[in-house]
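Late entry, written up from scratch paper. The run itself happened at the end of the previous shift, but nothing got recorded in the book at the time, so transcribing now.
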Amino acid sequence: MDKVINCFNKYPDAAVRLICFPWAGGGSIHYARWGKTLNSSVEVYSVRLPGREGRAREPLFQNMQEVLDEVISTLLPQLKEKPFALFGHSFGAMTCFAFAEHVKRVYNLEPIHMFLSGASAPYSEVRLQAPKRSHLSDQEFLTWVISIGGTPPEILANVELMKLFLPVLKADLSIAENYRCSRPSTPFLSCPVSCFDGKEDTPHDLQAWKNMTSGDFTVQILPGSHFYLKEAANEKIILDFITKHLETAEMDYL
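Output as recorded:
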């Protein structure tokens, strides 16, 4: 499990687990740090996919089903053990959806809350018509990566690191671009869904996420572009929001 899940702070007595999925090309450390910030009633599991950190030499996944097969087979005992919530940004938000849909359909399990950031719902027209990036040449792709921000300058400045980073990012984007699902005709979840986005980011169809749940649905727009959530003030707002809502959900389960 330690290969797939990064958990900085293990809290065996935590009331709920927050499972976090990386953005395209992202590792597990950003979210794993949240375990030090959130209180001990929330245990943070940060998903680590192949091609990054200690898994740098492993073959990259080619499609969403490969992601789901690995993460669900790793986490299924934990999903059955206690309540869980999901968080994902951009590619991670899409992975959250695919994960939630699968575990509900196959195992009749559902999160107590979904926190989705920086992405249109995968079945929305805005997402389906979005420009494809994964097929761009390395130079065109790099220009685009720089334009959206979020990549540490030390990686951009290091040719060897970029040779490792770009294929991982392209592979994740290819998974996202080729993932297809139908708009839910009826909601398959009953939990609350909370969406976040950066005010200066490319507009996303956040409202379409409402189709997946019969529970409460909220949208919060914060200052910044695509990686607005990396800014300390925004991160605090998000973590305070997560804490408040998971504590409320915990009370419902007591």
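The domain at 5-253 is CATH 3.40.50.1820 (Rossmann fold).
(Scratch paper discarded after transcription.)
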